Amino acid sequence: MVYEERNVWAGLIVSVIGMAVYTVIVLQQAASRPVTEIDWVPIMLWTIGLSIVATIVLSILWGILAGIRDPDGVGKSDQRDRDISHMSTRVGQAFLVIAGLGVIIECAFRLDWFWIANTMYYGFALSAIVGGIASVVAYRRGLV
């Protein structure tokens, strides 16, 4: 597994776990009160912050282990890696556009901040997950 692919896997794993954890915490709180009364800001910020840190730590640890196994292959990327990165970015951006449009519509209807922020959060999370999946598929099956 090449350097870039390991980083994609690290981001994908952490994104799925982070989104799941955030969703479970918010749903637990929603069971006892309306969602508009949930103090979602610290939950979201902690989830995002910890996900960033976890992705970095996982990438570093995975890189160290890979470096022990193959010292010559660590940290190298080539044109294929760049092409896969560009492709996955374009795939993931579709979800950012959809989330952005959703946020504009929610603002037009003056929905609560909870809905607006969560639409954007899940747009970012889905962008990372779908883009990561596209990258992994491209690494495994090649670019078409």
List keywords for this structure.
0% strand, mainly alpha, 144 residues
Report on this structure.
The chain is 81% helix and 0% strand. With 144 residues, it is mainly α. It is flat, with a radius of gyration of 18 Å. The model has no long low-confidence stretch (mean pLDDT 94).
Brief digest:
The chain is 81% helix and 0% strand. The chain contains four helices and no strands. It starts with a helix and ends with a helix.
Distance between the termini: 20 Å
The SS-based structural class is: mainly alpha
Which percent band covers the strand fraction? under 5%
- Inertia-based shape: flat
Order of helices and strands: HHHH
> What is the mean pLDDT?
94
- Low-pLDDT sequence parts: none
Radius of gyration: 18 Å
Largest sheet: none
In DSSP terms, counting alpha (H) and pi (I) runs of 4 or more, how many helices? 4
The amount of helix comes to: over 70%
Q: What's the total number of strands?
A: 0
What is the fold's blueprint, element by element?
Elements: H1 3-30, H2 40-69, H3 79-108, H4 113-141
Helix pairs in contact: 1-2, 1-4, 3-4
